[in-house]
Amino acid sequence: MNTRFPEGFLWGGATAANQLEGAYLTDGKGPSVSDAMPGGKARMQIASQPDFDWDILENRYVYPNHIGIDHYTRFKEDIALFAEMGFKVYRFSIAWSRIFPTGTETQPNEQGLKFYDELIDTCLSYGIEPLITISHYEMPLNLAKMGGWQNRDCIAHFERYAKTVLTRYKDKVKYWLTFNEINVGVFFPLLSLGISNKHGGFEKKVALKGLHNQFVASALATKIAHELNPDIKVGCMIIYMTSYAVDANPINQIALHEFNQIFNYYCADVQVRGEYPSFTNKFFKKYGITWDDLGVEHDDFAILKAHPVDFISFSYYMSSVVDETSPESEKAEGNMISGVKNEFLESSDWGWQIDPQGLRLALNQLYERYQVPLIIVENGLGAYDKVEDGKIHDTYRIDYLKKHIIAMHEALEDGVDLFGYTPWGCIDLVSASTGEMSKRYGFVYVDLDDEGNGTMDRLRKDSFEWYKNVIKTNGESL
């Protein structure tokens, strides 16, 4: 089987500032929403309590994001490892609160910008293309305490921030993403929208109001980018959850259709097509929402239509099963949301169902619907890694990635326009879903445990050399 990819295909890896930088109050940085999230398997359980609010930053839990993996001081060492693997692209994020500590300042924090100057220049010195996420669960905590994205003032604050970084790096960075996994806000608005449960996080109309404000902010950022440099490409970023109905019962088929509409397509439709989808009014009616509830202003729709994104980026880890007729069915864990367990699939150490063919379906479904270029910016296996005689034999990770790369190549043969692949957590970092270090994704092992103990030494896993060869042969050697 020939799995060679098109020339110029962008192989690389992906991270987020809040999960690896650490230095959460260093050089003028302010706290972000991620800095207020406790660590451990109970992280989401704590965050899902009805009275959860952003005062949780008090010292009652372990906060792994505060130290990350010390990438803030060790980034040159880390980028050198990525270069050794042969990365063509590196997806990372800029921490909003490192540039505007409270989010409301009129002038940026120059020390924060200088850090990203060095980070970007280091990437470029190795021939690595930066792919930057402007907001990846890193909203300044101060803005979250002001209501998060349900507060329309956030549009202006984000526009100022986006203009600052886009202007600074307009001639160095070609690829940008506006909001990470924007569609998760429909179901879990805490991190993506900064809306705490105590202040409306469980209310659909509050979440959808926050999303509308993000749509407008994303369109304005896209406008700024294109005006600064027409060669800049701006993408949206969604979680894509390939889903199946549990059986042929029409009730479950309709439930699957409605899940896809709301979770997989609602946000992408607005950002790619520049307008709300046809099912919006039905969706609003289900939850008793009106357009007035969203605080829409008269020129919002024109802004969305005039400034759609250039491409779609997405995360894919697993698929899910929809079962409307048997609510007692066994559940499976997932990325922010879960579904019914699929008897035909194996699961990761954290219960996420492994489905490479689901990625092929995702690529085909997205491309058939939107006809714009695609890039997979998150995919990978969170697993327990064991160090044996100074080595990590992560054959399970190689097997996972190999099968997903084969599925990608099959999608290319199907006619999908796929231009890059950045597996998640190319170096071990703090998990967003659990705040653990033990849930590892990387090609590079970091000596750090869930309590923050360890040397932070970097160690190449077996998957490091494997992925290096994948890139060297442009996917031909798997």
TrEMBL record:
<feature type="active site" description="Nucleophile">
    <location>
        <position position="378"/>
    </location>
</feature>
<dbReference type="InterPro" id="IPR001360">
    <property type="entry name" value="Glyco_hydro_1"/>
</dbReference>
<dbReference type="GO" id="GO:0016052">
    <property type="term" value="P:carbohydrate catabolic process"/>
</dbReference>
<keyword id="KW-0378">Hydrolase</keyword>
<dbReference type="Pfam" id="PF00232">
    <property type="entry name" value="Glyco_hydro_1"/>
</dbReference>
<dbReference type="InterPro" id="IPR018120">
    <property type="entry name" value="Glyco_hydro_1_AS"/>
</dbReference>
<dbReference type="InterPro" id="IPR017853">
    <property type="entry name" value="GH"/>
</dbReference>
<dbReference type="GO" id="GO:0005829">
    <property type="term" value="C:cytosol"/>
</dbReference>
<comment type="similarity">
    <text>Belongs to the glycosyl hydrolase 1 family.</text>
</comment>
<protein>
    <submittedName>
        <fullName>6-phospho-beta-glucosidase</fullName>
    </submittedName>
</protein>
<dbReference type="InterPro" id="IPR033132">
    <property type="entry name" value="GH_1_N_CS"/>
</dbReference>
<dbReference type="GO" id="GO:0008422">
    <property type="term" value="F:beta-glucosidase activity"/>
</dbReference>
<keyword id="KW-0326">Glycosidase</keyword>
